[in-house]
Design brief:
Order of helices and strands: HHEEEHHHEHEHHEHEHEEEHHEEHEEEH
CATH superfamily of the largest domain: Type I PLP-dependent aspartate aminotransferase-like (Major domain)
Low-confidence stretches: none
Structural class: alpha/beta
Distance between the termini: 36 Å
Strand order of the largest sheet: 4-10-9-8-7-5-6
Oligomer: single chain
CATH class of the largest domain: Alpha Beta
CATH topology of the largest domain: Aspartate Aminotransferase, domain 2
Amino acid sequence: MQDDGRPAAPLDVFERLESGVRSYIRAFPAVFASARGHTVWDVGGRSYIDFFSGAGALNYGHNHPRLKGELMDYIARDGIAHSLDMGTAAKAEFLEAFQQLVLEPRGLEYRIMFPGPTGTNAVESALKLARKATGRHLVVGFTGAFHGMTLGALSASGNRFKRRGAAVPLTGAVSMPYDGYFGPGVDTVDCLRRYLEDDGSGLPLPAAVIYETVQGEGGLHSARDQWVRRLAEVCRRHGVLLIADDIQVGCGRTGPFFSFESAGVRPDIVCLSKSISGYGLPMALTLVRPDIDVLSPGEHNGTFRGNNLAFVTAAAALRAFWSGDGLQREVQSKAARIRAGLARCAAGVPELRPEIRGRGLIQGLALGEPGRAERVCRAAFERGLILETSGARSDVVKLLPPLTIDPAALDRGLDILGEAVGACAAA
């Protein structure tokens, strides 16, 4: 029985009734009942440290009290919950907060588009907008990229397994080598530059290039700031729009609010989702340079663009965490703590030749052998730590703890990870 007297839900109900496409429940075979901060409890009362954070949708942890309080107050006074793209007080409050706390301090001028409530919606709208603004159709993505599960987003993604799930040809995009694809001595922007400059390359002038600063699903490969700056320069020189996919690595995950801030670039379009609502509620934004805001009214729409409950928590999160640089400094401090912990894990298994990847609070350990990271994550889960894998071959253990996690809990999670890595190396 659960604490409230209801019978505990057995795992077999999902096996009997849910589609076989489910995946995370296979990695985390438990029925979860409650969560707060960095801790999740299952129906049996067992606690887990959360290094998964809803795949990056819970940067501020579960049920943050300030966000929960504002949400409950809003619901209690019968605030508008659903509104498509009509004007509401909650939406206006969010727009003002985002402008004042995020865009203005960074000198950024973007129009804010609500494309639909998920990350792949943001990407689809960005691709559509880039194509209409330029009159060109081709989009350049990168090896290792992942931008979503709808057809346009998949076409610009690199993961063979996920692309195969489309079951139709994926067109309109080509893949170029990401930073480090040929090793540290090769600047792969030169490849793109040469293709664009050569009339015999066979590559039409693209509408846009879409990239991730850290490839969250692609093995935690991280682009150097110099590479991002060169990419932006090449795009600007050829009139190609630059789209930053900040869906998983934005909202402070790498330290600053946007992952591209350290490179000093200003993408033409930015995609945000996951943690923009601050509470795990569905919400997405497409930030657009004003002069390319060319979609006509209704030319891109959706029933659930107006998730006012998400607007409430999003505005609350901005006020709570982004009125200064305190959270950014906290992330930088914890990032160093994680890197040191991962170094300890790596030192314990030199025979695996592990590689530390990522930045900020999206870091991980590449273990070389396909499937080994899955075994490590399974062993960690058995010890009370939730974390997932990354990479096309599931060879990277990926850490996504809440940005607000207590340092003691962070250290405990790293210790559990070390135990799991050691156990799998010995097996």
